[in-house]
Write a structure and sequence with these properties.
This protein is of the alpha/beta class. It folds into 2 domains: 62 residues, Alpha-Beta Plaits; 250 residues, Alpha-Beta Barrel (TIM Barrel). The protein is 33% helix and 17% strand. The chain has 11 helices and 14 strands. The protein has an 8-stranded parallel β-barrel with strand order 7-8-9-10-11-12-13-14, surrounded by 7 helices. A hairpin with a 2-residue loop joins strand 5 and strand 6. The radius of gyration is 21 Å and the shape is elongated. The protein starts with a strand and ends in a 15-residue tail after the last helix. 46% of the residues are buried. The structure holds phosphoenolpyruvate and manganese (II) ion (MN). The site of phosphoenolpyruvate (PEP) has 8 residues, from loops.
């Protein structure tokens, strides 16, 4: 349910609505838009509530939200959400280009990669310190030491970093180091983890579950938003289909669908979306052409020796080429590259 406030309503009147909601055992989430201020009501509503709220001073009208997801939907917030991470604004006209290795392996590997992706024009570093693994015998990450290495790379290059958090217990630790917390595909419906991520004052990127519908994905986003964390971005990383040529099927159509249904920024991840390095660039271009606010790309100094996801990782040279090919595509859809071409300097 949405409580639309009158244009000239006062803070006090809004407070009155919020108090009424609290007394009814409900939560109110305020969204101050360009056109209007609305209060999204979440919780178990009851039939008389609408009339009661409509009679309160300052209230223009009360409208039901037709979709099961509330706070992530455009009905609640028609304007695009933007998220500030260091100097980077995600969800604005400029693209967010997140790049780095799948897993943090060594200090040297991360530093070299951070320098290379920055030189090629990326504005956010990625790297997994806590790695989810399909097999228990695969590399599972360096843990806290990995976070320290990422923090060192940030200090040297100035790039903010994103890294995955696997468990509710690790949220505090990861939030202490990272600029953005990543929730991976395997954890999209780990509701306790979502609750915890909703309580931190750090942006969160929620990847789509590999078998999740768009509605399930937005309902997971709702968990984080309902806890009060509005700094949320989504990431399309491919879904399971019958196709075996690729690791996942990158669902490009999810990008314009999310843009239509939700105000949250969306990032395309063609690395996990395809699983094959030579498909990464074409799908990256497609994601931006389809309206994505940015990309997440796996890059490694030597993909053949990567401890994780080498087959889908780009070399420094291939990443630089991706960025060069991306520039005209971005321009054609009215988006800016994170760094203007003349500013990019490759050593
Ligand atoms: C990753 O980003 O390295 C990762 C594990 O992603 P996903 O959760 O999409 O598989
Ligand atoms: Mn990976």
């Amino acid at each position: 349910m949405l409580v639309v406030m009158k244009k000239d309503s006062t803070e006090q009147e809004m407070e009155g609505v919020m108090q009424k909601l609290t007394h009814s055992g409900l939560a109110g989430h305020i969204s101050r838009g360009v056109e209007r201020t609305v209060i999204g009501v979440v919780g178990q509503t009851f039939p008389e509530l609408r009339d009661t709220l409509e009679l309160l001073p300052g209230v223009e009208e009360v409208i039901p939200i037709s979709k099961p997801y509330k706070l992530s939907g455009r009905e609640f917030k028609p304007d695009d959400t933007t998220i500030k991470v260091g100097d980077v604004l995600i969800g604005g006209n400029k693209l967010a280009i997140i790049a780095g290795p799948c897993a943090v392996e060594t200090e040297r590997q991360v530093l070299e990669t951070a320098r290379a992706v920055k030189a090629a024009g990326a504005n956010i570093l990625r790297g997994g310190a806590f790695k989810p693994s399909t097999s228990p015998y695969q590399f599972r990450g360096l843990g806290k030491q990995g976070l320290e290495i990422l923090a060192l790379a940030r200090e040297e290059t100035g790039l903010p970093f994103i890294t995955e958090v696997l468990t509710p217990q690790d949220v505090e630790l990861v939030a202490k180091y990272a600029d953005i917390l990543q929730i991976g595909t395997r954890n999209m419906q780990n509701f306790i983890l979502l609750d915890e991520a909703g309580k931190v004052n750090k942006p969160v990127m929620l990847k789509r579950g590999m078998s999740a519908t768009i509605q399930e994905w937005l309902l997971s986003a709702e968990y984080i938003l309902a806890q009060g964390n509005r700094q949320l971005l989504l990431c399309e990383r491919g879904i399971r289909t019958f196709e075996t040529h690729t690791r996942n099927t990158m669902d490009i159509s999810a990008i314009p669908i999310i843009k239509k249904l939700s105000h949250l920024p969306i990032i395309g991840d063609p690395s996990h979306g395809t699983g094959k390095w030579d498909l990464v660039t074409p799908m990256a271009l497609a994601a931006i052409a389809a309206g994505a606010d940015g990309l997440m790309i796996e890059v490694h100094p030597n993909p053949d020796e990567a401890l994780k996801d080498g087959a889908q990782s780009l070399t420094f040279e291939n990443f630089e080429q991706l960025m060069q090919r991306l520039a005209p595509v971005a321009a054609s859809v009215g988006r800016e590259m994170p760094v203007e071409p003349e500013e990019v300097h490759v050593e």
